[in-house]
């Protein structure tokens, strides 16, 4: 692996609209200056960005790379290539692989796999199996512990929350109530027409199921003095529930691009391939780009499957959407449409994820930080093209969406890892 040398990004426009030169040495931001000193003219490489925007490298705290055990869907190489291609320099992988990352042994095995394969820097969320396993995994420095609430009874959840109480780690949650979901599915499956009606899936995993799970999670967090990270919140109702409780609990809230930009009419147009957990909501009840002021971060919930697994019945189809290579283009389009500002987007996709998951060397363009950067061309246009994706998941409900604004270069710790749709391998690191 070649040694990281020096790099200068000349005439870089920051999200604040300030034009500056970013001087990088040994993978770190050494200086941000308006004028380029003569002594820096001999840098290994100078790139004149001609006032293209530069944001802090994106951090996605919510990916499913399916490795180990489910690599026919995705693996650390293909998933991390997709990340680099999409403007991400750091990802944090979820624990629901085979085996689950809920023991120290499984956690270390996944870390070894990622170290060999990943094109981006990475962290890992840990699953929750037993108090002893939670304590042992803590030695490996997980980003957080993750619980899928729809898989456990209230009694089991109380026990699992208690296991995290002395770890000083966030608890990341998939918030859907198991009893409500199970009962709804049982009732809706009685109608055979629902086998081909994906909207029935959003009825089964209802807004009420999300509301009840979030409410229960907050009460348990207060009981055990936990910090919560609520993944992929989907509905305005939940946001209203959370608002008055914020003073009682330390929590952060994540949005995903598909929940922000789509509603469940997408099932009529795109079919069961748009199925995801939690599901897309009816228009008027769903979160939209106008609700982003209530959120702390945007995660992709990149969750690829094979087309064969996706193209089944309402109940049998696998739930999940690949998002790493579409998210930034879609959201930059929203910037161009004046729905969100570029500084706020950088905060949601870089700065805040670094704060929430304690990654102090990343998330901001400042002296001393890792030189993780994504170069943006706000005028670049195109359509979301399946043939141009690095992920193994060759489907998206955003297929053929026209975008204005795109990443054109991704830099991780001073080295270019993606440019002009090409992706390059450099040395990765575990971020903790």
Kindly describe this structure.
The chain has 432 residues and is an alpha/beta fold. Helices cover 29% and strands 22% of the residues. The chain contains 13 helices and 17 strands.
Describe the SSE topology.
Layout lengths: L5 E9 L4 E7 L2 E6 L12 E3 L4 E4 L1 E6 L12 H10 L2 E6 L10 H14 L3 E4 L6 H8 L6 E4 L5 H11 L6 E4 L3 H11 L10 H6 L2 H18 L2 E4 L5 H7 L7 E6 L1 H5 L4 H5 L26 E2 L8 H4 L16 H10 L5 H15 L16 E11 L18 E11 L2 E5 L2 E2 L9
Parallel strand pairs: 1-4, 1-5, 6-7, 7-8, 9-10, 10-11, 11-12, 12-13
Antiparallel strand pairs: 1-2, 2-3, 5-14, 14-15, 15-16, 16-17
Produce a short descriptive summary.
This protein has 432 residues and is α/β, with parallel strands linked by helices. The chain has 13 helices and 17 strands. Strands 1, 2, 3, 4, 5, 14, 15, 16 and 17 form a 9-stranded mixed beta sheet that branches. It has a 5-stranded parallel beta sheet with strand order 9-10-11-12-13. Strands 6-7-8 form a 3-stranded parallel beta sheet.
Measure the end-to-end span: 21 Å
Number of distinct beta strands = 17
- Can you give the mean pLDDT? 96
Unreliably modeled segments: none
DSSP strand (E) fraction? 15-25%
Helices and strands, in order, run as EEEEEEHEHEHEHEHHHEHEHHEHHHEEEE
User: What is the helix fraction of residues, given as a range?
Assistant: 25-40%
Main sheet, how many strands, which sense, barrel? Answer: 9 strands, mixed
Structural class: alpha/beta
Q: Please tell me what the overall shape is.
A: globular
Counting DSSP H or I runs of 4 or more residues, the number of helices is 13
Radius of gyration, in angstroms, nearest whole number: 21 Å
